[in-house]
Amino acid sequence: KDTIDLYSGVNQGNRSDETWATFQKALDDARIVLADLKATQDQVDAANEAITTTFAALKNAKDMLKGRFGEFVQGVTTSYFGSYVGSKPQASAQSKAASIMNGVVEKMLNDADKECERHSVDTKGNLKVYYVIRVSKGDMKKQMIDALSNDEKLGIDFNADQMQKFMDERMAQM
Hints:
Layout: H1 2-8, H2 17-35, H3 41-57, H4 61-82, H5 91-111, E1 114-121, E2 127-133, H6 137-149, H7 160-173
């Protein structure tokens, strides 16, 4: 009952209809088990596990991709500013560059359309959700370079070719 109460207040938000329906079914199934006076402890445990597993799968795929691209941005800015020749820029310039690049990532992911979604359950009973969107790495790099080149508050002599080199190296590792 506690698990049902805890997760009943969750809203769909920007989660896909398919993933949301799977979560709602787990909640509904758990309510049936709760109402069954003959339900075994194993059935109760399985219902609790289904709710928590499907809830974990609700994590928005775009947020997961944003985290992955955030790692890319961190690696690129660390490499770029670590190799900076001339006077060392302040940490604020690196932070500002990362913020600009993450803003480009967020906009592109928010604008991306879902191409397909698949659900499966692995051998341990964990729900896996595969969510496919199309994002062009080339467009993303170009938009990042443009945003960095046009930002007057960056406070450094920005070298687009050098940044492009670090982006290409990082993208090759993705």
